[in-house]
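Predict fold of Lipoprotein; 329 aa.
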Amino acid sequence: MKKRQIAFAGASVAMVLLTAACGSSEDKSAGSANVQPVGGTQTVGVGATSGSSGYGTGGGNEAGGDAGDAASGFGKDALTGPARQLSVRDVPKLGSVVTDSKGWTLYRFDKDTAGSSPKSACDDACATKWPPVPADDATVSTGIRQNELGSVTRADGTEQLTLGGWPVYRYAGDTKAGDTKGHGVGGTWNALAPDGKPAGKKAARDDSLELSVDDNAKLGKIVVDGQGMTVYRFDKDSAWPMKTGCLNACLDTWKPVEPVDRTKVAGVDAKKLTTFTRPDGSKQLAFDCWLLYTFTGDTKPGDTNGQGKQGLWFAVTDKARKAGVAAAK
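Predicted 3D structure, encoded as tokens:
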């Protein structure tokens, strides 16, 4: 009798440990298994502002070249007014670019100082051609995090908007919403990406990483494999008990992610990475007990063509949740 009690207690402990390892981060029922803050309310779900998607090249010196005629078409309010709601739009050759509420492109200056103590290096004549964006009344839409917004006090005492720690400007040489003529001027002015970096420029990938997190303009922080390809999870899989719902023909389209070296991951909790043995004996990587796949319809790093497929496939966030889905789900 005593031996049976000991065996039962051991099995109970093993079950508790496995349950804890697999998934405290969300309800598994569906799968069965110094920058000061600016603006107060985040508005989500607003699409890209309409306007031309043309890609222009600027000329002239770092202060912006000859923009006198363009400024009259731009309008004083458009040059100097608050940005209000920032949006993200896709521009050929540049990718994701931040615009103000009227669709005018916003810029950053490489000679500024960013970070926790930002400082503008654009004053006087430069500020006429590159008008600083006031810090008041700024909110964000999908693709931009509210905590990326801030402000910096300029030499004249006014407050200028910052994004990702970088002071934000408009360009008087843009003549209509959607223009990006200020991008590349003087080799120091660039359209702003949603994280405050120069649009069209991505940080070099660490080739040693086998799993990491990428900032996606529409989905936020999502997991990518060693080649930068988006990683997905499947609602017909089960996290507890771990079980795959992708078999046979499904595997022609959705490729299981192979196990990784836990010392070569970044942005995710390596302790939540486990290995699952598939029915054919092959090994598959799981994150918080959700099996991971790549999509054959993605052809290059950054693609998310598998997102929402059949209402069952979703990119994976850095917390192992479904990207683009409310936290409760």
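Helices lie at 2-21, 68-74, 76-80, 125-129, 250-253.
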